[in-house]
């Protein structure tokens, strides 16, 4: 049966975000920027000790334990943190809460593709300034009239990180607009813009447990800002769903923050592998951006990216490719373990090095 036009007229029809594949068979999985190492041992220990009540009862709607652990870690007030079901949930609520101007919001033309999806979903007008020839954000493009600004730092999928001064310039030119910095990958890169929170009331920084804390499956993300903007986010959240965070996510998230040593070691292993792989790919003739994330963004002057993507997949090695004409010559490769990267590089050496 086809649905009649009269009905379709009043339905919200959207082009959804397309997530990377989650194959169930065993593959070398370098396609969705997960962390190849397990979470801190405290996480599994807490998970195994979850009480029956933590299944039977609703969770704490304020996620108090997790908020307190984050506030201690980040040295901000508990009223400066908002938590959600991954940073996707947090960012989506930020779009709904903060981008209500008639003026267009700004985000780069090459960036996290979910921004465009949320803008369309919530009917927020937007303009996408172009990156420069080296995939860098041109900060002056963000000095014009706008209804808000959002970009990731490091940007995705380019993996390029901008220093905090760069963010501060944009904040200074946008005193009356909300600026959201999506720091999903910042732990692999450098300093966080959270250091600017107390000086700029227009700044919101989001981060996630999915990448640097190896907890993508648990779905934990958060925003840091001033108490007033956090209150606005909470009011929208409570108008949507009071119980977003499960008991397991609240307890495991708090546990993950206990072990700083493990966190730092995990990150330095990934950074070291990233730098090694970058060098080996360059030896094979690939051009790589100066990645500061847990993934690489690469192109080869003599090999078609889509073809390479398909051949890799055929060999059980999953990476990411987009058909967008602006980046169709590029592949995005998540940094896995040294063993996984060796399988990936051996495949390329056979193909290209020969
Ligand atoms: N921002 C960026 C730039 C991302 O690449 C991702 C991961 N797809 C997210 C946010 C969302 O991550 P999560 O919802 O797992 O926190």
TrEMBL record:
Presence of the UniProt keyword Transferase in the record: yes
Record SUPFAM superfamilies: PLP-dependent transferases
Involved pathway(s): Amino-acid biosynthesis; L-histidine biosynthesis; L-histidine from 5-phospho-alpha-D-ribose 1-diphosphate: step 7/9
One Gene Ontology MF term: pyridoxal phosphate binding
Keyword field: Amino-acid biosynthesis, Aminotransferase, Histidine biosynthesis, Pyridoxal phosphate, Transferase
Pfam annotation, one family: Aminotran_1_2
Residue intervals of the Aminotransferase class I/classII large domain: 26-347
Catalytic activity: L-histidinol phosphate + 2-oxoglutarate = 3-(imidazol-4-yl)-2-oxopropyl phosphate + L-glutamate
Residues found modified as N6-(pyridoxal phosphate)lysine: 211
Protein EC: 2.6.1.9
Keyword Zinc tagged: no
Cofactor(s), names only, from the UniProt record: pyridoxal 5'-phosphate
One annotated GO biological process: L-histidine biosynthetic process
InterPro entries, sorted: Aminotrans_II_pyridoxalP_BS, Aminotransferase_I/II_large, HisP_aminotrans, PyrdxlP-dep_Trfase, PyrdxlP-dep_Trfase_major, PyrdxlP-dep_Trfase_small
Domain of life the protein comes from: Bacteria
Database matches in HAMAP family: HisC_aminotrans_2
UniProt record similarity statement: Belongs to the class-II pyridoxal-phosphate-dependent aminotransferase family. Histidinol-phosphate aminotransferase subfamily.
Subunit text: Homodimer.
Protein name according to UniProt: Histidinol-phosphate aminotransferase
Organism: [Ruminococcus] torques ATCC 27756
Name of the gene encoding the protein in the UniProt record: hisC
């Amino acid at each position: 049966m086809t649905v009649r036009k009269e009905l379709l007229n009043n339905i919200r029809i959207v082009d959804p975000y397309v997530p990377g594949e989650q194959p169930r068979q065993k593959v070398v999985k370098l396609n969705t920027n997960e962390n190849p190492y397990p979470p801190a041992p405290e996480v599994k220990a807490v998970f195994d000790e979850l009480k029956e009540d933590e299944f039977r009862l609703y969770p704490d709607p304020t996620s108090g334990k997790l908020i307190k652990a984050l506030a201690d870690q980040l040295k901000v007030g508990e009223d400066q943190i908002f938590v959600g079901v991954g940073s996707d949930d947090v960012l989506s609520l930020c779009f709904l809460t903060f981008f209500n101007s008639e003026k267009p919001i700004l985000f780069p033309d090459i960036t996290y593709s979910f921004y465009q999806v949320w803008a369309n979903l919530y009917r927020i007008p937007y303009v996408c300034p172009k990156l420069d020839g080296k995939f860098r954000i041109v900060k002056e493009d963000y000095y014009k009239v706008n209804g808000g600004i959002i970009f990731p730092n490091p940007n995705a999928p380019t993996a390029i990180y901008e220093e905090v001064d760069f963010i501060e310039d944009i904040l200074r030119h946008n005193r009356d607009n909300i600026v959201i910095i999506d720091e999903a990958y910042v732990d692999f890169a450098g300093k966080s813009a959270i250091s600017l929170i107390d000086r700029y009331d227009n700044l919101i920084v989001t981060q996630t447990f999915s990448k640097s804390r190896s907890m993508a499956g648990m779905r934990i993300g958060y925003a840091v800002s001033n108490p007033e903007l956090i209150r606005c986010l909470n009011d929208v959240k409570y108008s949507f769903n009071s119980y977003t965070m499960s008991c397991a996510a609240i307890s495991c998230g708090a546990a993950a923050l206990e072990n700083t040593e493990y966190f730092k070691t995990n990150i330095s292993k990934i950074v070291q592998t990233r730098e090694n792989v970058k060098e080996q790919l360059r030896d094979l003739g690939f051009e790589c951006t100066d990645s500061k994330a847990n993934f690489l963004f690469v192109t080869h002057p003599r090999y078609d990216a889509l073809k390479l993507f398909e051949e890799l997949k055929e060999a059980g090695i999953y990476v990411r490719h987009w058909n967008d004409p602006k980046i169709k010559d590029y592949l995005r490769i998540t940094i896995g373990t040294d063993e996984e990267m060796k399988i990936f590089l051996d495949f390329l050496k056979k193909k290209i090095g020969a």
